[in-house]
Specification:
single chain, alpha/beta, 7-stranded parallel beta sheet, two-stranded parallel ribbon, 9 helices, 37% helix
């Protein structure tokens, strides 16, 4: 057996893929999740594995165990879910970071924080480099998530500077793939589920706002690669995502083509503080560990559509 690794939020969309990857590398994996947005179904195929353990736990409460590495992915990541209970969302980011950093310090374990491109808010710099401080509304509807993640980054760097805890911070840009929830409110899952059911495809605003979509296997590859390399110089933060930019109207068109759907596109009002542009500058992570995405949007969307077809029993 390799390392003993804790993955918080491990039954979630990204966490479940990460757990599978770590098990494939002969590690022992403890998957901790409070199952608010994570699902047992996402890790059902791993429960038979002798190196895998699922623990129902909330990171707002302390956690005591011996581990070699920690991946902190605990926090709802879509606006629908993180705005459901904004106080709990902030506590998950801040208290979760504190508890897990304490655990990392005690174990002398390396720890990765799954941060987010939302730390840049509605950016006035494009594409977004890690040195950009962002344009975040601290009292807006997205603040519980945006500011919670910014506070978590501050805590990670304080533990790094004050206690020499070996940290890794990844700012994750839009990611998609199998194990996404149908009701998570994110644009790829929304568009695919609507298209497969021949329902109207809902675009917020004029559809000219952009995002950059990274397939989940590329993201997980980058996370694990960063954690496998030693040294305090890899603290980050590092942007991770696909720098290929597409408009929401363009994405809807692609999904309509790939699904053969007869859905019509309808427009609704843009939500408050919704970013108009989002595209990562990935030069820092590319230089540090040689990471860049490999999966094309067409290929990734094809895999994701096939997953949702199964979920919808089509």
């Amino acid at each position: 057996m390799g390392k003993r690794i804790l993955v918080t939020g491990g039954a979630g969309f990204i966490g479940s893929h990460l757990c599978k990857k770590l098990l494939e590398q002969n590690n022992e994996v403890i998957c901790a999740d409070n199952l608010f947005t994570g699902r047992k179904e996402n890790v059902a195929g791993l429960l038979w594995h002798p190196g895998f353990k699922l623990v129902q736990h909330d990171v707002t409460k302390p956690f005591y165990l011996e581990v070699d590495q920690i991946y902190n992915l605990a926090c709802p990541a879509s606006p629908v879910h993180y705005q459901y209970d904004p106080i709990k969302t902030t506590k998950t980011s801040v208290l979760g970071a504190l508890h897990l950093l304490g655990l990392a310090k005690k174990n002398k374990a390396r720890i990765l924080q799954a941060s987010t491109s939302e730390v840049y808010g509605d950016p006035k710099v494009h594409p977004q480099p890690e040195g950009y401080y962002g344009n975040v509304n601290p009292i807006g509807p997205r603040a519980c998530y945006d500011e919670g993640k910014r506070a978590a980054e501050a805590l990670f760097f304080s533990y790094y500077q004050q206690h020499q805890v070996e940290i890794r911070i990844l700012r994750i840009f839009n990611t998609y793939g199998p194990n996404m929830r149908m009701d998570d409110g994110r644009v790829v899952s929304n568009f695919i589920v609507q298209a497969l059911q021949d329902k109207d495809i809902t675009i917020y605003g004029d559809g000219m706002q952009t995002r950059s979509f990274c397939y989940v296997s590329d993201l997980v590859e980058g996370m694990v690669s960063l954690m496998e390399q030693g040294g305090l110089g890899l603290a980050g933060p590092f942007n991770i995502g696909n720098p290929s930019e597409i408009t929401m109207a363009g994405l809807a068109e692609r999904i309509l083509g790939l699904t053969g759907s007869s859905s019509k596109v309808v427009h609704q009002k843009l939500p408050a503080d919704d970013p108009i542009k989002r595209k990562p500058d990935i030069s820092r992570i590319k230089e540090a560990i040689g990471w860049e995405p490999k999966v094309s949007l067409e290929q990734g969307l094809g895999e994701t559509i096939a997953y949702f077809k199964k979920e919808l029993k089509l």
